[in-house]
Design goal:
By secondary structure, the chain is α/β, with parallel strands linked by helices. It has ten helices and eight strands. Strand 7, helix 9 and strand 8 form a beta-alpha-beta unit.
C-alpha cells in the first residue's frame, strides 16, 4: 500500500458545511459543501466505493469533494445502505442512490443549484451505481465512473474482492439473472447521458480493461462515452487530490459541467 493510498483512506476529511438526511435510515444522508462563488452552482453528486460493503463509508471521499468545492462546484457526498446494513445490497443500495439524486433535484432552489449543470460521479463500486442511475433516471445527462466496476459479470468471473458482486446482488448470474440485468451498466442502455470513464493503467483493484471494454461496447451501440486513461495511476489516485492524476479528474468534471 502506497503512502498516498494510506493517506486518502485514513486522514480525517475536511468538515462539510452540513449533513442533510434524504431518508429515515441513519445511512441515508448527504454531506453538502457549497463553494464560495456566485450562485447558482454547478452540482456534483458523489457515490463512494468500497465494493458495496458496510465497512467502507463516505469519509475518504470527503477529500475529493472538498477539492471540487474549491473548484467552484457544490458537492453532495452521499452515504447509503450497504451490504451488512439492514436493507443494504440489491435493490436497497440502489434505491438509496436514486433517493439521494431526487433529493438533490428537489432541493435545488434551497441550495441555489443549477440543475442544468449536474453530474453524478462514482468511484469503484460507486462507478457502477452512478452509471446504473443514469440508466434508470432519464433526467440524468452526465455520469462519471472513476475506476468503475462497470461490468458485473466480469467482476463475478474474476472473483473481485472475494466475490463482492455476489454479496451485493444476492447470488451468481445463474442464480439471480434479473438482478444482473437491472444493475449491470454493461447490459443497461444509457442513451441520454454522456458518460466519462476515468481509469489508471496501474489499477490492481479494478483492472483498466473494465473501462476499456465498456467504452468499446457502448460506442458500438451509439452511446456517448469517453475514456480517459491515466498512465502510472492506481486505484486510489483518482480520488486523491494530492495525486497528479486528480488534475485530470478535475478537468473531466469541469468539462462535464460546461
Amino acid at each position: 500500500m502506497t503512502e498516498a493510498i494510506f493517506d486518502i483512506l485514513s486522514q480525517p476529511q475536511p468538515a462539510p458545511d452540513r449533513r442533510e438526511a434524504y431518508g429515515s435510515d441513519p445511512n441515508q444522508f448527504v454531506e453538502l459543501r457549497l463553494p464560495q462563488a456566485k450562485a447558482p452552482f454547478p452540482v456534483l453528486l458523489n457515490v463512494h466505493g468500497g465494493y458495496w460493503r458496510a465497512k467502507y463509508d463516505l469519509a475518504h471521499a470527503g477529500h475529493l469533494c472538498e477539492a471540487l468545492r474549491a473548484a467552484g462546484i457544490a458537492t453532495f457526498n452521499m452515504e447509503y445502505r450497504r451490504v451488512g446494513d439492514p436493507g443494504g445490497g440489491w435493490p436497497g443500495t440502489f434505491a438509496d442512490v436514486r433517493s439521494a439524486y431526487r433529493y438533490v433535484r428537489q432541493e435545488a432552489a434551497r441550495f441555489q443549484l443549477d440543475l442544468n449543470r449536474l453530474v453524478v460521479m462514482g468511484h469503484s463500486a460507486g462507478g457502477q451505481l452512478a452509471l446504473c442511475l443514469a440508466a434508470h433516471e432519464t433526467s440524468l445527462r452526465r455520469a462519471i465512473a472513476l475506476a468503475g466496476v462497470v461490468d458485473l459479470k466480469k467482476a463475478f468471473a474474476l472473483h473481485l474482492s472475494h466475490d463482492a458482486v455476489v454479496e451485493f446482488l444476492g447470488g451468481t448470474p445463474e442464480q439471480v439473472p434479473e438482478h444482473y440485468r437491472e444493475a449491470d451498466p454493461m447490459e443497461l442502455k444509457i442513451p441520454q447521458a454522456r458518460q466519462w470513464l476515468i481509469h489508471g493503467t496501474d489499477d490492481d483493484t479494478v483492472p483498466v480493461e473494465f473501462s476499456r471494454d465498456y467504452v468499446a461496447q457502448k460506442k458500438k451501440i451509439g452511446e456517448t462515452v469517453d475514456l480517459v486513461e491515466i498512465p502510472r495511476c492506481g486505484h486510489f489516485d483518482v480520488i486523491d487530490p494530492a495525486s497528479a492524476a486528480f488534475q485530470q479528474v478535475t478537468a473531466a468534471v469541469l468539462s462535464a459541467l460546461g
